[in-house]
Amino acid sequence: MLSPLLPSRPAVLVGYDIDRAAAARRSTGGKLWGSNPQLTSGLPYPHKGLVHCRRGGHPEPARRHGADRRQARSDREEGHDAPLRVHIAVDESTKPEFPLEPYIQTDYGHLDVPAGTLVIPLTSRQTKDGMLGTHLKIAAINSIHNLLPANLPTVPNRALAYQPNVTLSFVVLNEDASEGSYVEGWDVEAAIRDHFKPTLEPLAPLFNFSIESQVLYHAPLTFEPTQQEDGSWAVDDEQIKVFVSEHWNLDSKSTNNPVLRFMLFVPSAKHRPMSLPGTDASDTFLLPQFGSVVILNPPSSLKEDASYHLTESALDQPFSQFTSDFYKLLAIPTLPEKLHPCPEKKATKTRASRGVSEPFSPWQLDTALRMRHLENAREARKTLGGIVRLIDKIEEMEIHAAVREKILGAIAKLEQLPAAAKEGVLASALLSRDAVGLANEAFFDPSMMGLLYFPDQHKFAVYAPLFAPIGVSLVAGLVKEIRAWKARKKAKKAQTEPAAASVTVEKDMPVQKVD
């Protein structure tokens, strides 16, 4: 019997370590932790009792972090959750005033700590503050509470329904290359590497991504944009609904997986500059469960008959928007706004200035796994319930052995969820993913679908032409037999009526006496 209860929130392990310099200051009188080093004492439900903190005692940070990376990699390979870490570091480049400004460490951060660590920086001056323990506790509790929300956000309708295999299609759409000033090529591989790869790799336990790209030289609009007083062209809200034309060759020929399309539209020379409605002159819009469109107006200095190549720097702004839309289309949580950006190493042009999004952190992965875990568990139960109702409604439906095995397999996966949730969110997410996959395979099995779309009206329409000739003969024969039966009955009745009349006459005649 299928349990009506969904698995509880999986446990999360959060470890913390202290910068060596900060620890030294604590031993010389600096009150780094105050009187209570237990950060989780103020954590609200559901993290209390689930989030554990521990101090790192390794003398060499480089060796410690290398071991952490190897352990995290081993945990991922074995299917276990790596602990989420909090690092308290003394950093003289940080703001010297309170409140503290925590951030998520990235691969390009200037501290020697593993990427994905929640870093709470402080200056040497702040380590001597008597209220430092309270400030640290507030920063840690607020950050963890925002990173691991008690109430999971629901998957919005604009997001793609969960599918383990997803194709990402990147397309340049030249409205009309014959008019000149069109895009003939782009550094799409470099843009995907910088903007998408840091997000795609951590999502490997949930999704299998495939990527394709193309450049189209003729993608005309099916409507005429509205020309503004300043000579620009605008696309209104109604035109946005039909912006993507069915005549564009956007279909993926290599896969039947759901496709998210990220389209870079280059208007023709006569429709430039083009913008969308709004006071901010937006140049992008989202297509729910389909993809997103960014309008790219070539520079006015470009010759009308020239073609050009989009470099990596030219793609930073469009791909920054594509990344943001990608998060929305897959219901991937973003980092809370209360967290600050990670300080970068000195470079000629930082990632933040280029518009490159923060890499996907383990904290976001935890929330994404829990969201999809809950969605898949509910969907699997809903699909199995639909199979039961379908069998009750169509009594002649036969459940083959292969379908039965899939149904029992889905039920077994769901029953294992409560125990798997205690091991970690990754194990439970994988179980729910397999459960919904088996349930869908059972529901959409050809043997099930054949009876589902074969109602009684369909049977009558199919068999009526076959049995109609026989039915006419049967009806004609039946009518003939009824008529013959009536004739025989009438003849028999006619024979019995004269005999009865003669008997009556004889009884009524008077009897004569003879003398």
UniProtKB/TrEMBL annotation:
| Topological type in the membrane | Multi-pass membrane protein
**Keyword Glycoprotein assigned:** yes
Q: In which pathway does it act?
A: Glycolipid biosynthesis; glycosylphosphatidylinositol-anchor biosynthesis
- Residue ranges of region Disordered? 54-80, 495-515
What GO cellular component entries does it have?
A: GPI-anchor transamidase complex
Q: Where are the transmembrane segments?
A: 460-479
Composition skew (Basic and acidic residues), residue ranges: 57-80, 505-515
Task: Please name the GO terms of the biological process aspect recorded for this protein, alphabetically.
Answer: attachment of GPI anchor to protein; GPI anchor biosynthetic process
Q: Which InterPro entries match?
A: PtdIno-glycan_biosynth_class_S
What keywords are assigned to this protein? Answer: Endoplasmic reticulum, Glycoprotein, GPI-anchor biosynthesis, Membrane, Transmembrane, Transmembrane helix
Where, subcellularly, is it found? Endoplasmic reticulum membrane
UniProt record similarity statement: Belongs to the PIGS family.
The protein in question is named: Phosphatidylinositol glycan, class S
